[in-house]
């Protein structure tokens, strides 16, 4: 059992390194991964567009109709992340729901048994994965104020061992006019599991967006503080041509822990991407460098009904 717990912690630490944050004693660090390529390309900011609705339910009322999205990212050593989410606005457009699923597959690992001399001998392989299922609700309070909240059931399996828990997300958005807005909230808050904290964070975002989410050019910033005591300032911008072709750029700047083992700042905190939207169909791509570990490619497909 002790060896299983040690492996669980090691996997969690490895995941945190992939996402360029220090792990501390948190579990389920895969929850820090942006749910789709559009959000990933814009530094993971939680309020940059309606594409972040899976982690910011206050944006749900901005959907005109039902939307279905699926994403996939290949990481390192046969690890990968995939997600799917669906947003359904209710009649009148004042409120709606989002349901989502995300999973991180760590691939196959070598299994070992303790022998009579207190050493270990190889005993085949086993799989490891993290996953969550979430549901959230968002609504308009006034013409200027939007709120949302949601729950995720999250679990981790390593061979025949399992750890699980529940996290809570809440967000709000204030839009005094159609030229800018601010959004803030708490992400992935929950009770500790077997002594390991959830990867919770609080954030405050400010987005400059003339014509509210339909601008040719928009930019924004976000301050995010994690429960593992890491703090980040995120910045991103997006340019679109005729609302059909999108180019995105983002950057994560660490305030107190740079995770320098992964390489220089410019090698691991930058994000780039593009998108194409034609009618009801949207495809997005993000390129994410992780310094000495190489780079990751994420692709998303969205269908608007």
Describe this entry's structure for a reader:
With 305 residues, the protein is mainly β. The protein is 7% helix and 54% strand. The chain has helices at 2-18, 37-41; strands spanning 67-74, 80-89, 95-114, 120-140, 145-158, 161-174, 180-189, 201-208, 217-226, 231-241, 245-254, 270-278, 281-289, 295-304. It has a 14-stranded antiparallel beta barrel with strand order 1-2-3-4-5-6-7-8-9-10-11-12-13-14. Strand 1 and strand 2 form a beta hairpin. The radius of gyration is 20 Å and the shape is globular. It starts with a helix and ends with a strand. Mean pLDDT is 83; it is low at 1-24.
In DSSP terms (H or I, runs of 4 or more residues), the helix count works out at 2
- What series of H and E elements makes up the topology? HHEEEEEEEEEEEEEE
Shape: globular
Structural class: mainly beta
How far is the N terminus from the C terminus? Answer: 49 Å
What's the number of extended β-strand segments? Answer: 14
Strand neighbour order, sheet with most strands: 1-2-3-4-5-6-7-8-9-10-11-12-13-14
Low-confidence stretches: 1-24
Instruction: Report mean pLDDT, rounded to a whole number.
Output: 83
| Fraction of residues in H or I helices | under 10%
Radius of gyration: 20 Å
DSSP strand (E) fraction? Answer: over 45%
Largest beta-sheet details: 14 strands, antiparallel, barrel
């Amino acid at each position: 059992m002790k060896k299983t717990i040690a492996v669980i912690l090691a996997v969690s630490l490895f995941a945190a390194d992939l996402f360029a944050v220090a792990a501390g004693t948190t579990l389920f660090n895969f929850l820090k991964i942006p749910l789709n390529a559009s959000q990933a390309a814009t530094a993971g900011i939680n309020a940059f567009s309606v594409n972040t609705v899976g982690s910011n339910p206050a944006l749900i009322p901005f959907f005109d109709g039902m939307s279905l999205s699926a994403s996939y990212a290949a990481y390192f050593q046969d690890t990968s992340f995939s997600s799917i989410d669906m947003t359904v606005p209710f009649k009148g457009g004042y409120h709606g729901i989002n349901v989502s699923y995300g999973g991180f597959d760590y691939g196959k690992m070598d299994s070992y048994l303790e022998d009579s001399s207190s050493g270990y001998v190889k005993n085949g392989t086993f799989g490891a994965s993290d996953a969550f299922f979430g549901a959230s609700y968002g609504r308009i309070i006034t013409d200027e104020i939007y709120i949302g909240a949601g729950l995720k059931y999250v679990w981790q399996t390593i061979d025949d061992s399992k750890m699980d828990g529940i996290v809570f997300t809440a967000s709000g958005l204030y839009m005094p006019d159609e030229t800018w807005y601010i959004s803030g909230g708490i992400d992935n808050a929950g009770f500790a599991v077997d002594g390991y904290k959830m990867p919770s964070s609080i954030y405050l975002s400010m987005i400059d967006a003339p014509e509210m989410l339909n601008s040719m050019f928009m930019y924004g910033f976000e301050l995010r503080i994690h429960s593992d005591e890491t703090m980040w300032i995120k910045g991103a911008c997006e340019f679109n041509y005729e609302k059909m072709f999108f180019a995105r750029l983002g950057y994560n700047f660490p305030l107190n822990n740079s995770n320098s083992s992964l390489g220089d700042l410019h090698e691991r905190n930058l994000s780039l991407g593009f998108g194409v939207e034609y009618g009801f169909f949207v495809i997005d791509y993000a390129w994410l460098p992780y310094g000495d570990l190489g780079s990751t490619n994420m692709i998303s497909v969205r269908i608007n009904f």
